[in-house]
Specification:
By secondary structure, this protein is an alpha/beta fold. The relative contact order is 0.12.
Length: 620
């Protein structure tokens, strides 16, 4: 038996566990998928148990258990932060210390209680937060050497880190420290625009194309001093997170014309323009930093991680800029990915285990299909026990043709196939699917299926070899982390007269077909692309999902599907057949596919003893 390392992230948000064996990623999962509590920060005992089961080992067989953060360094930041905050800092310290003096600072003891062992090392190893991010980005990447960029809210002290990797060597040589943070700046605007911090940042990014960057100069003049190399400093008089009271302070609100938007209240032109402005400034900083990294390291490739690396619009601008020849982004770029990074650090930096790769120039992330899968027998046993009507179609061609024809008729399909994805994106294992050609798909999926804001765009999954026929993009994007323009020949003009004249109602714009694929075309004629290639499962592919795209193309001539996460608003992505069925019945989906089982909603009995999902899940 070779070296086995277990990585853990917990006690902030998005707790997770990951297991690596002899340099190969075996399993990884977020705790939220098992507890059904979105962004669950608790110690990931369920995710750990899954990882151990997937590797067929007991916890005592672990060679190392690695935590993604250095709690003592984080504690130092909290103490220094409280001292700087004066009287108000005491309240901040009391709140933060509850976590730090609980599980996070006593990690050895908590691991011992939860697992009954500290592994063969006899102690928990600790990574530094940004080094864990950097490892999660570099080691699974397809590059022998690369520049490294990690950007998030805050680790122990670092908020932005620059580095380089070569073979098994990885170093970070420059950083920006708290309280100066691009991630927290973006979160301050997220909160001010009425969205939830650490959850709603992607909404702000999706809102941005509806506005104009009219506040960008004010942001640069008052909030952030940006240097030519992409480094920056914030004017902390505008922010509230130093004393923990709020993300932003009174001066912030005054600068942008009054109080913050209340959650769930109407979105006005101000919020649209604020979103566009902070998005523009964020993109500028990312690009400036990338240019500096290219000059400093001389590397042709770049890898990214940290929460800001989930800003797929900035990623798309970076990829299109040509600053680096190629970029690779960790699919679980947020704190969940820190568990994977810490496990990889033990392998390659601590034990000097050689890196592994997929075939050809592929990465070692295995498609990010690293979670549980359920056999047809398990699914059938569940459905039979509950008495839910289904049809089992073993023949793949027959099954996928039926699903493709159903999609072509305008039906919405819940799709569960293979191992669950690791990270925030559904990539064809736990997805809700629709016809991108249908102008009603976006509104139907937002309002009747996802129960979320109408402006939110949906992403396309496209056959890799057909990507350039539909998008101004011809590269790999298997993890849905890059935004690119829809092909101009497919786009249609929009009537923006009322909107340009001050009408804040986005529905008039969002309901207009903007291209031949209206369901996946955002208001700026862009799309967040997932390319689906023909790799095997062993090399990170999803042959079943690819075959469905091919079947849909045979039926319709279109090799593109709408692909969104299998959940409702505030719910984690589904994990088990039970989760999938419950979500299916709580929405207006038409068809549910559980491996080779087909279930029509019209044939299902009413869901018994079911709570209102709005009370079950905290809205994000």
């Amino acid at each position: 038996m070779g070296k086995i390392s277990l990585g853990i992230s917990s006690d902030y948000h998005d707790s997770a566990a990951a297991l690596v064996r002899d340099g190969q990623i075996v399993a990884a999962a977020q705790e939220e998928r098992f507890t059904r509590k979105k962004h669950d920060p608790s110690f990931p005992v369920n995710a750990i148990n899954y990882c151990l089961e997937e590797c067929f080992i007991d916890a005592s067989e672990l060679d190392a258990i690695v935590f993604y953060d250095n709690p003592l360094m984080t504690f130092d930041r909290v103490v220094q932060n409280a001292r700087a905050g004066g009287a108000q800092g005491r309240d901040f310290f009391a709140k933060a210390a509850g976590s730090l003096l609980g599980d996070k600072i006593w990690v050895n003891e908590h691991v011992q209680r939860a697992l009954g062992t500290l592994g063969r090392e006899g102690r928990v190893l600790f990574a530094e937060h940004h080094m864990a991010h950097a490892a999660s980005a570099f080691y699974p990447s397809p590059f022998d050497s690369a520049a490294v960029l990690t950007i998030d809210g805050v680790g122990e002290w670092a908020t932005t880190s620059l580095g380089a990797g070569n073979g098994r060597s990885l170093e970070l040589f420059a950083q920006i420290d708290y309280p100066h943070s691009l991630g927290l700046l973006y979160s301050a605007f997220t909160a001010f625009c009425g969205f939830k911090v650490n959850s709603g940042e992607y909404k702000l990014m999706g809102l941005a194309p509806n506005g104009r960057p009219t506040y960008a100069d004010q942001i640069r003049e008052h909030l952030i001093d940006i240097r030519a190399d992409g480094s920056y400093r914030l004017d902390m008089t505008y922010f509230g997170y130093l004393d923990g009271a709020a993300m932003f302070g009174p001066l912030f609100a005054h600068l942008f014309g009054g109080p913050a938007r209340l959650p769930e209240s109407p979105i006005t032109r101000r919020e649209m323009d604020l979103a566009a402005s902070i998005q523009k400034v964020t993109e500028e900083i990312v690009l400036d930093t990338a240019r500096y990294l290219r000059r400093t390291t001389g590397e042709k490739n770049l890898v990214l991680a940290g929460g800001v690396a989930l800003n797929c619009v900035a990623n798309g601008k970076l990829a299109a800029s040509g600053i680096f020849d190629r970029i690779w982004i960790q699919p679980a770029a947020g704190d969940a990915g820190g568990s994977l990074g810490s496990a990889l650090l033990a392998q390659h930096a601590y034990w000097d285990v050689p890196r592994t790769r997929g075939t050809g120039a592929g990465d070692a992330q295995r498609g990010s299909y690293l979670g549980p899968r359920y056999s047809s027998e398990e699914i059938a046993a569940f459905l039979d026990r509950k008495g839910y009507p289904y049809r089992r179609i073993v023949d793949q061609t027959e099954r996928l043709t039926l699903v493709a024809e159903s999609l072509a008729k305008g039906n919405i399909v819940g799709w569960m196939s293979g191992r669950m994805e690791f990270g925030p994106r559904s990539l064809g294992a736990r997805s809700i699917l629709g016809d991108p050609r249908n102008p009603r798909t976006q509104a139907s999926m937002n309002l009747k299926i996802k129960y979320r804001e109408s402006f939110r765009p949906f992403a396309p999954a496209v056959l890799r070899e057909k990507c350039s026929a539909y998008f101004e993009f011809d590269d790999d994007s298997p993890y849905m982390l890059l935004v690119a323009p829809v092909k101009k020949a497919l786009c249609k003009p929009m009537d923006l007269a009322a909107f340009d004249n001050g009408d804040d109602d986005m529905m008039g714009v969002n309901n207009q077909p903007r291209s031949d694929l209206p369901a996946i075309t955002h208001v700026d004629y862009s799309a967040r692309i997932q390319t689906v290639d023909c790799k095997s499962v062993e090399n990170g592919g999803h042959p079943e999902f690819r075959s469905l795209l091919e079947a849909f193309e045979q039926v319709t001539g279109c090799p593109v599907l709408v692909n969104t996460s299998f959940n409702v608003r505030g719910e984690p992505i589904v994990c088990s057949p039970q989760d999938a069925y419950r979500c299916f019945m709580r929405t207006e989906m038409d068809l549910l596919v559980l491996e080779d089982m087909i279930l029509w909603r019209s044939e299902q009995p009413p869901l018994k003893d079911d709570d209102d999902w709005r009370k079950t899940y905290e809205l994000d």
